[in-house]
Amino acid sequence: MRLWDADGVDPDESLLAFTVGDDPVWDLQLLPFDCLASAAHARMLCEIGVIAPAELEPVLAALREARAESLAGRFRILPEHEDGHTALELFLVERAGEAGRRIHTGRSRNDQVIAALRLLVRERLVGLAARVADLAESLLTRSAEERTTPLPGYTHTRQAMPSTVGQLLAGVAEGLVHDLELFPGPLHWAHRSALGSGSGYGVPLPLDRERVAELLGLDDVDVNTVQVQNTRGKLEAATLGVLHQVSLTLGRFAADLVWFSSEAFGYFRLPVRLTTGSSIMPQKRNPDLFELARAVPASMLGRYVEVTATLHGLPAGYHRDLQRTKPPVLAGLREARALVEVMTTAVAGLEVDRAACAAALRDEIFATDRVYDLVRQGIPFRDAYRRVKEASATGSGSPEHSDPRSQGDADAPLRAGDPALQARVPTADFLASRTHLGAPGTEQEPLIRDRLRSAVAALDPYVTGIETARRSLES
């Protein structure tokens, strides 16, 4: 039975197959949150006299049962139900009788699904943020361990300047902090109540929308009832935008791991249990996991484009097109969690070949250091740059020791054998000379960790809201 079956018309099976599609599969994810929203709505209906106090507890008990069944994977949405909202209402009628028929008073499936989706996004994003924070913390721990492990720094995929393994790992950690700072954007939208807007034009009942928001632990209510419907898809897009940023940070890190763990570099060794084999080459261990992680940003961007393109040109109000915005965000949230979890495992098991890292620092990588050696002796930067570049081009190296001509003729050429062209001792010298904020020679982890804590603390109101919503189901 469908909620709108009342006129005796038997809909064509092809219509049902096309319009329903796999919506019941996705609605199973929404159903626990539909139960929370329905509990708050039922309490409000009781307070305004639509549901009798004696009817409320059977409804709440049925909602608790439905939520527990759905979380355990036992709740079923049958083909004849069309969607999760119908399945839930029929379940309530079966368990609570006439009171179950009153639950839909004052709402539409339109505001019902928006409410459930907002609660889901809030909980899933908060849960994901906790995992991202744990990964960032793990990276900072590894960064401190490898703070003095030299590593070539690259630009344009060519050796550029000396760096460290710690610098690379701390950079990924701070990138995740930046991503966490984006989470309050969609969470702020998700933290407003949609219930009471109905199909977009309100209902002729004295609904207490603010009370529903309070019961669900939400900050506020979206005021205009049409605008509630117009937000459908925008929250999904904003959420996917944040997920895309997280996947970009981790996708680029995965690319580094693929590259730096190859035989050509050998800086890192990937955990064997996180690699796969070849069907033809018995010696191969392939970084499939990290290659797939590298591809996740493309999937996230594709979902974002799918959702935003669906919204283009839609008139105000609800349209069935908007059903298409649900699968991308649910799939994106699932994939983001899987990505963060597997990268957390990878960071914990990552091995660094410190000897290979140090051996990779070719003498030319210190060319910029040699420029600054001359700068410290009073030679203008551009002159020092030119002199080192010319010396490098002739194969004579670059200056390290004091140049007796530095206070004289800045144009004097450097020649092979000149004491200004002797090689430097790499790691100790280049780290000691890089002491400004954020440079490889500094302890960055405490400052990044402070910012990580601040980003996590900004999510505390949403954690509290989640706990409040769960209490709405209690007696």
**Strand adjacency order, main sheet:** 1-2
The separation of the N and C termini measures: 30 Å
Structure classification? mainly alpha
Major sheet, described briefly?
A: 2 strands, antiparallel
Show unreliable segments: 397-408, 419-425
Pathway: Amino-acid biosynthesis; L-arginine biosynthesis; L-arginine from L-ornithine and carbamoyl phosphate: step 3/3
Region (Disordered): 390-416
Pfam family, one: Lyase_1
Keywords: Amino-acid biosynthesis, Arginine biosynthesis, Lyase
Notable traits:
single chain, 475 residues, mainly alpha, Fumarase C, Chain B, domain 1, Fumarase C, Chain A, domain 2, 3 domains, two-stranded antiparallel sheet, two-stranded parallel sheet, 8 strands, 59% helix, 5% strand
Can you give a write-up of this model?
This protein has 3 domains: 13-105, Fumarase/aspartase (N-terminal domain) (Fumarase C, Chain B, domain 1, Orthogonal Bundle); 110-205 and 219-359 and 451-469, Fumarase C, Chain A, domain 2; 364-432, no CATH class. Helix 9 (209-215) links the parallel strand 3 and strand 4. The longest helix has 37 residues, at 109-145. Helix 6 packs antiparallel against helix 7. A two-stranded antiparallel sheet has the order 1-2. It has a two-stranded parallel sheet with strand order 3-4. It is mainly alpha-helical and 475 residues long. The two termini are 30 Å apart. It contains 19 helices and 8 strands. Helix content is 59%, strand content 5%. Residues 397-408 and 419-425 have low confidence and may be disordered.
In short:
The protein has 475 residues and is mainly alpha-helical.
